[in-house]
Amino acid sequence: MTGCQRRRASVSRAFMLPHLLCLMCFAVISLAENTEMVNVVTERKAEESHRQDSANLLIFIMLLTLTILTIWLFKHRRFRFLHETGLAMIYGLFVGIILRFGVHFPQDLNDVTLTCAMNSSPTTVLVNVSGRFYEYSLKGEVRDSKGHDVPNAEMLRKVTFDPEVFFNILLPPIIFHAGYSLKRRHFFRNLGSILSYAFVGTLTSCFVTGLVMYGCVVFMKVIGQLGGDFFFTDCLFFGAIVSATDPVTVLAIFNELKVDVDLYALMFGESVLNDAVAIILSSSIVAYQPEGDNRHTFDGSALLKSLGVFLGVFSGSFAMGAATGVMTALVTKFTKLRDFPLLETALFFLMSWSTFLLAEACSFTGVVAVLFCGITQAHYTYNNLSAESKSRSKQLFELLDFLAENFIFSYMGLTLFSFQHHVFNPFFIIGAFLAIFLGRAANIYPLSFLLNLGRKNKIASNFQHVMMFSGLRGAMTFALSIRDTATYARQLMFSTTLLIVFFTVWVCGGGTTPMLSLIVGVDTDQDNSVSSTHVTAPDGMTQRNTKHESAWPFRLWYTFDHNYLKPFLTHSGPPLTSTLPACCGPIARCLTSSQAYENAGQLHDEDTELILNDGSSLMYSDMTVSTDAHGMPTSQAGLYSLAGTSDDPLDREIVFGGTRLVLPTDEPPDPLTSFPPPPPSPPLSDPLRHRV
Amino acid sequence: MTGCQRRRASVSRAFMLPHLLCLMCFAVISLAENTEMVNVVTERKAEESHRQDSANLLIFIMLLTLTILTIWLFKHRRFRFLHETGLAMIYGLFVGIILRFGVHFPQDLNDVTLTCAMNSSPTTVLVNVSGRFYEYSLKGEVRDSKGHDVPNAEMLRKVTFDPEVFFNILLPPIIFHAGYSLKRRHFFRNLGSILSYAFVGTLTSCFVTGLVMYGCVVFMKVIGQLGGDFFFTDCLFFGAIVSATDPVTVLAIFNELKVDVDLYALMFGESVLNDAVAIILSSSIVAYQPEGDNRHTFDGSALLKSLGVFLGVFSGSFAMGAATGVMTALVTKFTKLRDFPLLETALFFLMSWSTFLLAEACSFTGVVAVLFCGITQAHYTYNNLSAESKSRSKQLFELLDFLAENFIFSYMGLTLFSFQHHVFNPFFIIGAFLAIFLGRAANIYPLSFLLNLGRKNKIASNFQHVMMFSGLRGAMTFALSIRDTATYARQLMFSTTLLIVFFTVWVCGGGTTPMLSLIVGVDTDQDNSVSSTHVTAPDGMTQRNTKHESAWPFRLWYTFDHNYLKPFLTHSGPPLTSTLPACCGPIARCLTSSQAYENAGQLHDEDTELILNDGSSLMYSDMTVSTDAHGMPTSQAGLYSLAGTSDDPLDREIVFGGTRLVLPTDEPPDPLTSFPPPPPSPPLSDPLRHRV
């Protein structure tokens, strides 16, 4: 028994609060047991720790409550120069200052630890205390304290969450909600551009930022400002985490600027998808481990392996998410769960959550899987839900998103003072700001130029500036950077990232929005009026204009989705009996629900109503004229009745619905003019008969 | 360094899953760090453990999904002999059997532990592994394995949750929802009887059960069947935990039996409140620790201390819950949060949660505080919410309740096979069934007799039988018994409790309901028709009948609540300007919102609509004729307009509302005939003018 020495632990990654965040601390146990004195003392300690933990969590709840009240006040007074997330950050900052400088907590015995020497680190340790065995579980590696001069070190450590909390509890609802509230119609029409920005753009941004940072780091080394190792992979990692832009703040900005919905979808879709790209990119960079002694040289096979990890994890997570979404759609379609909204919502929630677990259990990325699950659920399952479940599920995820979002931002503010291993380096910070600026520019401008070559609805240069400046860094960047703060390089990154988030949210998110709407607004509006008149002209027949906008792989997908997937998975869309070849008749009839014939048009319409967060009154409203059409469905129904005889399933659908006449942007572009028409429907199952 | 020996840990209380229930396991950390081989191994292990944890949690999610689908099938086919909680238990049972006997998991290195000797048990241990320090945290005491013969011991341990999860995560939403959906109008009118059953009854039941069990234990000792210590305090503890009846199953049973709403409120109110009594009672019994060597003798001062703990914790928790509820009411009244339902719901949710944390931080009982918070929120705050927030908050808590409830019950089924320290003793089991029967009888029959002496709306003997048999044991009993399973006595209790829950839910909750409705149903209906005709007679003036039903302390409370608290905390009720003395005029005007004048009657009406879980279509509907009155508010409004000149604020309110004419049971009984009338309202603030 050599090394039992008392020392105070200063843990680089703190993990006290998580236990209580979900409040599962190991409290008042074995109370009535035949206890000895030593047991009672342990219980007292555990109880004390539980009390302390509850109090800490209470601080956060109070912070959130305060934030909510202030948000209300701001909205009430129409005072909009600061986004609510910025507000949450400010409150967090204040609490951080108070905790650090204002309060003094006595150090208690809880924090005294014992050391004993061993020669490996198992996950569980049994400690023999005068004949009684106690189990201890591994928490992580502890490094030498740098915070001995900080007065409330222990207390500050306690209010710091386990970073995994962000990944496993707070991010999933945010990301799911982003996917679920994606403006799908416009999202799918601009899929090509969105994917370009999200993949090519984020990769470019990551590498440009990484290169600039590498230059900066080399410069710092030369002038002796670098306090530890900082490798090229670290630079790339930094590039990956600061390339993720935040979708929530994009929403807020686009409330102000009345830009074209397509451009809006572009921007929102990009910021949603680049989160997924950034998270997988960063783990691929981490997975880059060349063989041999020097682990920071170039190694082709390791690079290929990283690339493999990127592709494998991305496609795996995508498949998981889509599969769960499809399964939920099938379950909600073929059972009559809609009669019991509570059961339906519960099922919807559980299935969506199981995506996350499934992906994590298979070593994929749960957060990414949840994103694609959200998109799939919105595209298919949503159509099958009862009206009450629709609003229930939207409201539930809206609330979860709101709480998680504000929690993360107020926590960010708090961290600036409560985190004890900050490394602020002015050179690195200046370099980083330059790098993210260049990285974002290298993402937006060249890509927009290339995309404009193929796009009919051009991305105007003013809008490119908006995209450039509204690339706020938010929850994802923070979560990625706090995930590991063990080394010098990571601490430097974390502190710098925090400043970047503060700056972009307060300056870009707050002050720039009114400014941009003043300067760019007029131009954007003009641009918008030009682009939107040809898209959303009141003449119903102009919808054909949009069909050339997408490249053929996407158009192929639309056709397939509209003719086969939607009818198969939902009650909406044209009945499968009319889209599948005649030989599949029995199967088609089996898979098509009776509602599909009746609801074909109507449900499609509901579908388009799931646009953004329609729970909030301040949100950017849809610019199509669909609501006008709703007002007079009967008067125009006859106008196009001749179209019912056409072979075009889309035209026919317009007649059925009766409400979709002037919805030119309502549907994926009609594939008929550029593609062979789908096989004509067998006359026996003509849906027109079902209507009469 | 003496005692580093390898051994397999078998932990009496397992705690692996909690970490991942909320998924905060210590996964892939410090990946890009300058890692050594030992680090990589630790990470692999942690990652592996994270994967395993996700998979385990997935099992539960799948179980819940399956349960939901089956519940739907049962509801769809109108197949009701088994309550949904019983279903969840059956599925859990199957999964438990499969995990125990069907699957074989290889033992991995994760489970190997090291032992080193020390002379105290700190909460944190630092382990020095070849120069690197790893932190370990205390998990609890480990006792010698009894499960070496169980094949998948480690895996089974992993699917076992930390009992604190039940108390800190799963119970609060269930209990809050019970409080929030309490049928308040009828609850408050029967407050006296409900409190008698909940306090006197539960105490009686606890002591009777304890005494019977003590007899049983003594008998077992004599015949040599007792395998360990079992003291009288253990018997009392057992009595306390099995005295908590489950409110959820009560709801289901009362769907079938069309009994009087008052009697229903009695039953539901009792089962909600006795949960609170049982939880505090059990911790008071645990707190009974006589001084001296023999800790199981009688000691007057220790008994007094226990009594003090009981009263202190109960009143403290009550005060916390009520205070938070009142604060939320004030915030929602005096801000215009209603314009932003999302913010309002978030605030509501956070404030309710903070009650739990506040109570825990002050060493009170969070679960009990949450119950009273729920009741207060429903009674006051609910009136201030916007229509959307009303439905949002109801739906949110309904969903949380549903998920938590079914999780607990399916977990119960699983535990029967996954828990490794079961002690089944036929003598003890038979004794326990006898004891709970006698305990429940000693609660219901004598008390009902005494209460009937004072009650106008008698509790019929048939109904007493129903109360006797519908005392199902559920989530609370289970959570209390699993909280500590370290000693022989507690393991014996836990196993027996599990059987009691199974029996009561399946037999009493399932089969007995149709039986009871056949046998008792007719009588109950007659009884009901008698009791309800005099209460809900169509003549509006018969409402005066109900005023004598309650004892004076409760009537005093109604008057105070109706005249001062409701107007102060909500927009409803008579304006304070009319109830407060004239000298308080300025304050009264300041505290009375303009809506109070306008909405006085209407909001009251909404208030009464929060009855039971109105989300479910199967629920027991209100039996008053309020809906009829809604249909023709104008035709009858004039009928009673002469009452507007009366000094009685209640009568006047009837005229204002216009919809509450024939709502005799809508209001607390009019206090005027037995009490001095409240001061007449100053004529300048006569609310009638505001209406015109």
From TrEMBL, chains A, B:
Gene3D superfamilies per UniProt: 6.10.140.1330
Transmembrane domains' residue ranges: 56-74, 86-103, 165-182, 194-224, 230-254, 308-330, 364-382, 402-421, 427-451, 488-508
GO molecular function: potassium:proton antiporter activity; sodium:proton antiporter activity
Any one GO CC term of the record: recycling endosome membrane
Membrane topology: Multi-pass membrane protein
One GO-annotated biological process of the protein: regulation of intracellular pH
Primary residence: membrane
Entry's family note: Belongs to the monovalent cation:proton antiporter 1 (CPA1) transporter (TC 2.A.36) family.
Region named Disordered: 661-692
Keyword line: Antiport, Cell membrane, Endosome, Ion transport, Membrane, Signal, Sodium, Sodium transport, Transmembrane, Transmembrane helix, Transport
Name under which the protein is recorded: Sodium/hydrogen exchanger
UniProt-annotated location(s): Cell membrane; Recycling endosome membrane
All residue ranges annotated as the Cation/H+ exchanger transmembrane domain in the record: 67-516
Feature: compositional bias, Pro residues: 670-685
